[in-house]
Specification:
The protein is an alpha/beta fold and 418 residues long. It has helices at residues 21-26, 78-90, 93-100, 104-118, 166-174, 178-183, 193-202, 212-244, 257-273, 276-280, 288-300, 302-317, 323-338, 343-354, 356-365, 370-385, 392-402, and strands spanning 8-9, 12-13, 52-55, 61-64, 131-140, 144-151, 156-162, 186-189, 207-210. The radius of gyration is 31 Å and the shape is elongated.
């Protein structure tokens, strides 16, 4: 079969991806040719005179009748748009643009049309929500964030919006019906104040869980503050000893007592500075060298070792499954932290006490933010593949498309083989 013209038909691109019964009537394809055959690379030039409607009475302008193989206002066939969306969900946008011979921005429009065809109503994702997770993730330099809400039961993004904070999260809650609000039973988060305020205001009867990972992160931040304060003191002491015991001209002797004092002070400061990794690991995962370092801290820095023990005690109680036992252990921990005479852990005590109910809810329901953190990593991968997004809506469309259970059908392929 001869092909004679470029693949433009009244502004519409027709390729082997768009073989339909309409095209069969306008080309000389044999009637017995199976449609499932491989027509890749074959370009059909066809012409279809669509009906136009001019509404001068209502002053509504000119309308063109829709065709069954293309989306409204699209220059491409439906199969082409779906194929671009499928490539964009797996490949960088530049690669998709080059392979499909379209502009970079056209890829975003194809994805938008495919998404709205495969899922005409995003609001359906908000039905029957029971366990949800709320978090924000950065998508651009300069503190640019998006707020993401994940359904724990389906592991899909149900809502996403630019920016973060109470005013943004309120948009999500305000579009929910009373029935949808009442169906939410558990909300997980990172303990941010704006999440807590919205949960208490819109779903006061649901359980609010603070992710255990973030609780340990708070403890690690407090422990690092203590370690840095002690290191600053040790380093200041080393500089003072070095100043009080200046070296003479030439290389000092190995058995010089003044040199030994200076070296001991420097070794003490370096030991504290290099202990961050050992103090952050669980005792059962420490190497022999790291265990020796922790033992040295226990003998030389009682304050830092007490901070380390408080962190470990908090980590272990979060692993408990019995809520009553966990509550008793948490009360003991709060007492120890409030009487620790360590300012950083006194501040942590205040924070843990505010979130005490939320921490116990986490243990009771066994929920965490693991799914939403994994979704955040997937979103960052989408952004890296696209080398960033200038259009925030294009990014949100990709998030809704990739972080969901939507399957994109490919031409001449079974859906389960995609």
């Amino acid at each position: 079969m001869a092909v004679s013209k470029p693949d433009l038909i009244n502004g519409m691109r027709m390729t082997a991806l768009s073989v339909t019964s309409h095209v069969l009537l306008m080309t000389n394809i044999p009637a017995d040719q199976p449609l499932g055959g491989d027509w890749t690379g074959v370009v059909f030039w066809s012409k279809l005179n669509t009906r136009r409607i001019v509404s001068s009475a209502l002053n509504m302008g000119l309308y063109v009748a829709e065709v069954p193989w293309a989306y409204p206002s699209s220059r491409f066939t439906k199969d082409f748009d779906l194929t671009v969306a499928w490539f964009a969900s797996y490949l960088p946008r530049s690669t998709t643009s080059y392979f499909m011979r379209v502009d970079w921005e056209t890829v975003g429009r194809c994805v938008n049309r495919a998404l709205h065809d495969l899922e005409p109503e995003h609001s359906r994702r908000l039905d029957s929500l029971v366990n949800i997770g709320i978090d924000e993730t950065s998508y651009k330099k300069g503190h640019k964030y998006i707020t993401v809400i994940v359904n724990h039961d389906t592991n899909t993004v149900v809502w996403a919006s630019e920016d973060h904070g109470k005013s943004v999260l309120e948009k999500f809650y305000k579009q929910l019906t009373p029935e949808q609000l009442s169906s939410i039973k558990v909300v997980t988060g990172d303990g941010a104040k704006w999440i807590t305020e919205c949960v208490n205001e819109y779903t006061p009867d649901c359980a609010h869980c603070v992710d255990s990972f973030h609780v340990i992160e708070w403890a690690m931040t407090a422990l690092n503050e203590v370690r840095k304060d002690i290191w600053h003191d040790a380093y200041s002491e080393y500089r003072q000893i070095k100043k009080d015991n200046p070296y003479g001209k030439g290389r000092p002797k190995k058995d010089d007592p003044e040199l030994a004092i200076v070296k001991a002070a420097k070794a003490k400061a370096d030991e504290i500075k290099g202990s961050a990794y050992a103090l952050g690991k669980a005792p059962e995962h420490l190497s022999e060298k790291q265990q020796l370092r922790v033992n040295l801290i226990a003998s030389q820095n009682p304050r830092l070792y007490r901070a380390y023990l408080l962190k470990e005690q908090l980590r272990l109680l979060l692993k408990l499954t019995n809520v009553d036992e966990a509550e008793d252990e948490l009360k003991r921990w709060l007492w120890k932290a409030s009487h620790s005479r360590i300012p950083a852990f006194k501040e942590l005590y205040q924070k843990i006490r505010r979130h005490k109910t939320h921490i116990l809810s986490t243990i009771r329901y066994g929920m965490s933010n693991a799914r939403i953190e994994a979704t955040n990593n997937k979103i960052k991968l989408i952004i890296r593949k696209a080398y960033g997004f200038r259009n925030i809506q294009n990014m949100l469309d990709m998030v809704y498309l990739v972080c969901s259970d939507i399957r994109i059908p490919l031409p001449n392929r079974k859906l389960n083989a995609a």
